[in-house]
Automatic annotation (TrEMBL):
Gene3D superfamilies for this protein: 3.40.1190.20, Class II aldolase/adducin N-terminal domain
Domain Pyridoxamine kinase/Phosphomethylpyrimidine kinase: 30-272
Single biological process term from Gene Ontology: thiamine biosynthetic process
GO molecular function: ATP binding; hydroxymethylpyrimidine kinase activity; phosphomethylpyrimidine kinase activity
Record organism: Halorussus aquaticus
Name of this chain's protein: Bifunctional hydroxymethylpyrimidine kinase/phosphomethylpyrimidine kinase
The keyword Kinase appears for this protein: yes
Broadest EC class assigned to this enzyme: transferase
Biased composition (Polar residues): 1-13
Keywords: ATP-binding, Kinase, Nucleotide-binding, Transferase
Superkingdom assignment: Archaea
Residue ranges, annotated region (Disordered): 1-34
Domain Thiamine-phosphate synthase ThiN residues, every copy: 290-456
Length: 462
């Protein structure tokens, strides 16, 4: 076979097997795919582990609720666990809905003798507040918790297990300490069922506590979020990550999966189990889109729109939540004697100002993925007036002192003022600047091609 040619259909090929750590989920099936075994396997795969399962119950459900449930015999659950652990090198496991005291007991026996960490998601209380287990099954959980590397109850489940009503960080710590006293190596008391704008998940270990705080997402599409969290932690533990690192990553990915949930079914929708993987896969295409916009600006010579501090083009991955997930020109685009040129190449995290503004705008319109800062002067102002664009503006002189004192808060404040001043999503946002801060026109768009077209339109109208 010549160099560079492809093998013919009649030739055999050398296999190239790939090794992946194995994780096991012991949980109920969700025919709607949003929770249970289906959600666990999707999440485990998204975290680059191989998912195996032992099904405890079969449910007929969708995004609007559960139609019926059929619980499998405990001996069938045991047979599944034994089949998997007898063949695969399982490196971590998680539990979900266990349905009956008998199944809880079988799983507890297997967990106690397991040579791998077990994450226990004590599925006891529905989102509605209804209890999903009888008292006997709830009591049986004590033995399983004693074998857990991590137990992940929500506030209601923590109350059932410990008798502690979780209403604050302090009471979450108290409940977590009770779970450690029951034998768990660690406890993550989730704050989704506790009121407030900020959501706090509290990790309690023998070495101390950590609180993971993030803004609450205003959506009802949270079905399966607990499954996804415990599955993400189990997958990372299977990969050899430390517990605290695994929990932090799990909390982050579930928060993102809720914000960017999937609009499926007639109910609220489903959490986006593959959101992290999809976001990572989009990094290079996003960076390439930024490069193409920059090249367009160089070829068109947009020097008339370059601010004194330089121009930057920023592209965010589809589910970006941080500056590190935005690609930009390192060192910005500057004017030269012959036009404009980028100082260096495109990399992630290269922009601060424009990136933070774009991320702030995405709080109002998550479809926005690209932005650029342009000059603002009388000529640009006149050009904007001639264009049929939705243009918003904010005045830094009106920025409250408490906002100015918080590092990085100006862009969030400015974006909010801008979006509240117009109907829908603006094409351009004018920052009128202040002493020591150059006035700017920031153009936003959903894709790089649209961004380039808008800037060139502004240049022609200039």
């Amino acid at each position: 076979m010549s160099r560079g040619s492809r093998p013919s259909a009649t030739e055999t090929r050398t296999p190239a097997p790939v090794e992946k750590p194995v994780a096991l989920t012991v949980a109920g099936s969700d025919s709607g795919g949003g929770a249970g075994v289906q959600a666990d396997l999707k999440t485990i795969e998204a975290h680059d582990a191989f998912g195996t399962s032992a099904v405890t119950a079969v449910t007929a459900q969708h995004t609007r609720g559960v139609e019926s449930t059929h619980v499998l015999p405990a001996e069938e659950v045991a047979a599944q666990i034994d089949a998997v652990t007898g063949d695969f090198g399982v490196r971590a496991a998680k539990t979900g809905m266990l349905a009956t005291a008998e199944i809880v007991g079988v799983v507890a026996d297997r967990a106690a003798s397991a040579a791998f960490p077990v994450v226990v998601d004590p599925v006891m209380v529905a989102t509605s507040g209804d209890r999903l287990l009888d008292r006997e099954a709830e009591a049986a959980y004590e033995e399983l918790i004693s074998a857990a590397a991590l137990v992940t109850p929500n506030a209601d489940e923590a109350a059932v297990l410990t008798g502690v009503t979780v209403e604050s960080r302090e009471s979450a710590v108290e409940a977590g300490e009770e779970l450690l006293a029951m034998g768990a190596d660690a406890a993550l008391v989730k704050g989704g069922h506790v009121g407030g704008d900020a959501l706090q998940d509290v990790l309690v270990t023998p070495d101390g506590t950590r609180t993971f705080e993030h803004p609450r997402v205003e959506t009802d599409a949270t079905h399966g979020s607990g499954c996804a969290l415990s599955a993400a932690v189990a997958a990372r533990l299977a990969r050899g990550d430390a517990l605290a690192e695994s929990v932090e990553a799990g909390v982050d990915v579930v928060t993102r999966s809720i914000r960017y949930h999937l609009d499926v079914g007639e109910g609220p929708g489903a959490v986006h189990h593959g959101v992290e993987r999809r976001n990572r896969a989009a990094r290079e295409p996003t960076a390439e889109a930024v490069r193409e916009v920059v090249q367009t600006f160089v070829e068109a010579d947009v020097s008339a729109l370059v601010p004194e501090v330089g121009m930057n083009v920023v592209g965010a991955t589809p589910y970006a939540e941080s500056v590190g997930e935005t690609a930009a020109v390192e060192g910005r685009i500057t004017r030269t004697f012959s036009g404009v040129k980028p100082n260096r190449g495109v990399r992630f995290g290269a922009s601060s100002h424009v990136a933070r503004f774009l991320l702030a705008c995405r709080e109002f319109d998550p479809d926005l993925r690209f932005a650029v800062n342009c000059r603002f002067d009388a000529d640009v102002e006149a050009a904007l007036e001639r264009l049929d664009w939705a243009v918003a503006a904010y005045d830094r002189g009106a920025e409250p002192d408490e906002v100015k004192k918080r590092e990085g808060s100006t862009m969030q404040w400015g974006a909010r003022r801008a979006f509240e001043s117009v109907e829908g999503t603006p094409v351009a946002v004018v920052d009128r600047g202040e002493v020591g801060k150059e006035a700017m026109t920031k153009v936003v768009a959903e894709d790089g091609e649209e961004l380039a077209e808008r800037v060139l339109t502004l240049l022609d109208a200039h």
